[in-house]
Write a structure and sequence with these properties.
Radius of gyration of chain A: 20 Å
Strand order of the largest sheet of chain A: 3-2-1-4-5-7-12
Distance between the termini of chain B: 30 Å
Distance between the termini of chain A: 64 Å
Structural class of chain A: alpha/beta
Structural class of chain B: alpha/beta
Strand content of chain B: 5-15%
Helix content of chain A: 25-40%
Shape of chain B: globular
Number of strands of chain A: 15
Mean pLDDT of chain B: 91
Order of helices and strands of chain A: EHEEHEHEEHEEHEEEHEEHEHHEHHH
Number of helices of chain B: 10
Order of helices and strands of chain B: HEEHEHHEHEHHEHEHEEH
Oligomer: heterodimer
Helix content of chain B: 25-40%
Low-confidence stretches of chain B: none
Mean pLDDT of chain A: 90
Radius of gyration of chain B: 17 Å
Largest interface: A-B, 24 and 25 residues
Number of helices of chain A: 12
Strand order of the largest sheet of chain B: 1-9-6-2-5-3-4
Shape of chain A: globular
Strand content of chain A: 15-25%
Largest sheet of chain A: 7 strands, parallel
């Protein structure tokens, strides 16, 4: 089958591409980012999804399945541009799918769709609406893109649509919201709160998406791997230093003193958990994860050991200069 | 306890071995030495499988809930973790939210209750809710209006209800007034006031009496009048336990 992956430059998307290629599919991709060492049999088009050149790929290559992973989180792009990419891009994808006879469209969304709130159920099921958008407006365009993709289920009945709400990914590439958050030596927490975080290995995410292509399941599905863990446990086992700060202080310090940059709404996600119930996806596809929570954290840690303290680096340089012996 | 802890000592709901150890070490002291809790009828709680312990609120703070959880842990063999359906405001409070969830006490949402019961866990429910803890000293043995959600859940999940009466909480925290304004400012329903101002529990002996399990047949989608009838039966059973035991409280328990 001919599969077109949108956003193929991402770490997980590349894994999906390789996995699909290995199982005999013809794989193509679109991204504005380059894929330097892309295999020769994976055709990569460095174009903007919203431009004419991308439509040409649909028109000339006629993919049978499209995996839409070209959405961005608030950490990389902000404001109007994000809206254009996430919502405008998703609209364009479904229009092209309809116009050029694509049989199966897969929208890869995020489990943060459900939002974090003190009165939320611990395990969210697919039929729940997005809650607490008011507290995290930066998430609005991703939620809108997810809902737009979901409407394709009834707007385009001839197109099999799968909307996947995937939990955080962690793994050797250290890409994604949680991995970016954990990269530094110190990881902030909101004092007095320790929410559960749900994550899965990026290979497992790729396997789940590839399985969706093969099984051609129709509907909205939560995708999750091993059981969730408290944030403090993840930080400690990733050999990082948890820094619990009162909310008022954290708001001021975020992005400074080696702490990661976060949009204000994301701080709510450091207070309350977002955990999804992925039983429907498991039943529909037979998906089972390969990496448990211990192996997943370990794979991240091996690829990204905690950065050395600046003081040590400074002493090394002074030693190299001969100032210290 | 047979909870599915992973390699990090955490179960799929975030219940943590480390937190449970600290919680039960502290609570065992209060249970045995401070409140000298007398627990009767613990054999009515099944050793495994889904069940709901349903009882009256007694005392202005959650001493009753903590002691019921501790009784299921200390008095049962093998011990069980009773998981409370807590007030939602607890989850919004720093520290309390973390400790409550690490010890298996989740906000009282039907989604949580159904999921936990389907996994054959033991739920602890106070159908009086926050109204129950707001009772003043003179009303300490009275029961206020029961919610009906627990009965629909019991029917839907075919769960036996083990009624219990809790005695002594009203004397341990003799509430003379509730400050609703201050409570709202602090993010909780109210702040109880005792004659010595702070709602610190006194070392008064407490009693928990578990009754025989009650089984109800249905789907959980019955008319309100049917559900209210069932709820009234549970309320009457609890009121009966409290009424009988309050008179023999200082005389010793008759079988």
């Amino acid at each position: 089958m001919k599969v077109l992956i949108l956003g193929i430059g991402g770490a997980v998307a590349q894994r999906v591409a390789l996995r699909l290629r290995d199982s005999g599919h013809t794989v193509m991709g679109i991204d504005t980012r380059p894929w330097e060492d892309a295999p020769a049999d994976v055709e990569v088009h460095e174009v903007d999804l919203r431009k004419r050149a991308a439509e040409d790929v649909f028109r000339t290559r006629r993919p049978e399945a499209v995996v839409h992973m070209a959405t961005v989180t608030s950490l990389r792009v902000q404001g109007e541009e994000r809206h254009r990419i996430n919502l405008g891009g998703t609209r364009v994808v479904f229009e092209h799918c309809r116009a050029y006879g694509v049989k199966h469209a897969i929208f890869v969304g995020r489990h943060t769709f459900y939002g974090a709130a003190p009165d939320s159920a611990l395990y969210h099921t697919e039929d729940e609406p997005p809650k607490e958008l008011a507290s995290f407006p930066e998430l609005g365009d991703l939620v809108a893109a997810d809902l737009y993709a979901s409407t394709a289920l009834w707007r385009y009945p001839e197109l099999t649509t799968s909307v996947l709400r995937v939990s955080y990914t962690l793994g050797p590439s250290a890409q994604g919201t949680l991995a970016t958050f954990l990269r530094g030596r110190r990881v902030p927490m909101v004092a007095g709160y320790d929410p559960l975080f749900q994550f899965m290995h990026e290979d497992d995410v790729a396997a789940a998406i590839a399985l969706t292509v093969d099984k051609r399941v129709r509907g909205v599905f939560n995708v999750a791997g091993p059981q969730p863990l408290p944030l403090s446990v993840i930080i400690r086992h990733a050999q990082r230093q948890p820094v619990p700060l009162p909310m008022m202080v954290l708001r001021q310090l975020i992005g400074r003193f080696g702490l990661p940059r976060l949009p204000p709404g994301a701080l709510y996600h450091l207070q309350y958990p977002i955990v999804v119930d992925a039983r429907a996806f498991q039943q529909a596809t037979g998906f089972t994860f390969r990496y448990d929570e211990v192996q997943t954290i370990q794979s991240f840690l091996e690829a990204h050991p905690p950065p050395r303290p600046r003081r040590e680096e400074l002493f090394d340089k002074l030693e190299a200069l001969g100032v210290l012996k | 306890m047979e909870l599915p802890f992973n390699a990090y000592g955490v179960d799929p709901y975030g219940v943590s071995k480390k937190h449970l150890r600290v919680f039960f070490e502290v609570m065992a002291f209060f249970y045995r030495n401070y409140f000298r809790v007398r627990c009767h009828g613990i054999e009515h709680i099944p050793a495994r499988g889904r069940a709901m312990v349903v009882g009256n609120h007694s005392g202005g703070v959650a001493v009753d809930g903590a002691m019921v959880i501790t009784s299921a842990f200390l008095e049962m063999e093998p011990p069980r973790l009773a998981q409370g359906m807590a007030e939602k405001f607890i989850n919004a409070m720093p520290v309390a939210s973390t400790w409550a969830s690490r010890c298996g006490q989740f906000p009282g949402l039907p989604e949580h209750a159904i999921r936990l019961l389907e996994e054959d866990r033991l739920l602890m429910i106070f159908p009086e809710g926050a109204r129950g803890t707001a009772k003043l000293y003179p009303q300490r043995y009275d029961l206020v209006e029961f919610g009906t959600g627990f009965m629909r859940l019991a029917l839907k999940t075919r769960t036996p209800i083990i009624p219990f009466g809790f005695l002594g909480g009203g004397a341990a925290i003799p509430t003379i007034a509730n400050l609703y304004g201050l409570g709202r400012a602090l993010g909780m329903p109210y702040v109880p006031v005792t004659p010595y101002v702070l709602p610190v529990p006194l070392p008064v002996p407490l009693e928990i009496h578990y009754g025989e399990p009650m089984h109800f047949e249905g789907t959980g989608n019955e008319e309100d009048s049917v559900i209210l009838g069932y709820v009234e039966q549970v309320k009457e059973r609890i009121a009966g336990i409290v009424e009988k035991r309050r008179h023999e409280r200082w005389r010793g328990v008759e079988p």
